[in-house]
Amino acid sequence: MAKRHLGRGLSALLGGDDGEAPIGQQPGGTAPVAATRTAPIEFLHPSAMQPRVAFDDDKLEQLAQSIREQGVLQPILVRTHRTKTDEFEIVAGERRWRAAQKAQLHEVPILLKDLSDRDTLEIALIENVQRQDLNPIEEARAYRRLMQEFAYTQETLSDHIGKSRPHIANLLRLLELPEVVREMIADGRLSASHARAILHLPNCIELAQAIVAKGLSVRDAERLAQQKKAKRFKTAKPPREKDADTKALERDLTAKLGLKTEIQFDGKGGALTIHYQSLEQLDQLIGKLGQ
Asked: Where in the sequence of the chain do the CATH 3.90.1530.30 domains occur?
């Protein structure tokens, strides 16, 4: 059976924050297409499946001001709460619910749907991605969950949420960064473009901190990363020539053991390497060392 995707039909289910007809109203104010109702604001509860971690206070206040003037134009999508009688779990619209609290509303419009856990998670992920309210790390994690839990590919994600495949691929790559760098991206100190410039460099944490501290542009960050890469792949200096005594000792050990022997000495200490080609030779060596 073909995999069902919610992306294309999600806007019809949810409406939009800015300028789209609210759920329950046809364009032009004609007959409602789905029944809505109001519920006490304290009867709504955030979902554990919500992918967004951070809510921008300034943007919430802007939305709250709009709600004070016009009310909540788009109902909040909910399902019945699993443990609280006559209360609801928010599927999509937590940002509006939070702003409505700031606006000191006592009731908000809701659209109650019978949704499975699978549908709830999928809607929550796609709704947030389409709203463009997530920071790059939250967005990348949402893409990863859609791919891991709902068998999306980068191609189907691109088709169903209206994002380009390179955009999706570039964000997913950010999850390969160390947690310290991901936190810098999530809180806005480091842009995704800056982070991609230092991706896979062994000292990327140090580089990220330097970029932030110096306020480097993306181009400067890319130049810095190229310099670090050039140092990594710079031809190594040839090893120091062994002195005559070391070479003589290697020859004596090779003759005594019957196996090629190499000595590395750095002035303080070193390493002795004995090469063997079969387990039989190794057994013979162990026997000689035990004598």
From this structure: 7-14+33-133
Give Cα separations from 47 to 52, 79, 92, 125 (angstroms): 10, 10, 9, 12
Between 234 and 63, name the one with better pLDDT. Answer: 63
Q: What are phi and psi of 133, to 5 degrees?
A: -100, -5
Q: 140-144, 177-181, 279-283: which range is least confident on average?
A: 279-283
Please give the pLDDT value at position 26: 38
Residue 291 has pLDDT above 90, yes or no: no
Cβ neighbours for 56, distance < 8 A, ≥ 6 positions apart: none
User: CATH fold of 7-14+33-133, please?
Assistant: 3.90.1530
Q: Determine the Cα–Cα distance for residues 120 and 125; give it in Å rounded to an integer.
A: 9
Round to the nearest angstrom and report the end-to-end CA distance of the chain.
Answer: 72
The whole-number pLDDT of residue 109 equals 94
pTM of the model as a whole: 0.58
Beta-carbon contacts of residue 43 (< 8 Å; ≥ 6 apart)? 84, 86, 87, 88
Residues 6+ apart with CB under 8 A from 102: 60, 61, 64
Residues acting as catalytic residues: 94
Rounded to an integer, what distance in angstroms lies between the CA atom of residue 27 and that of residue 12?
Answer: 12
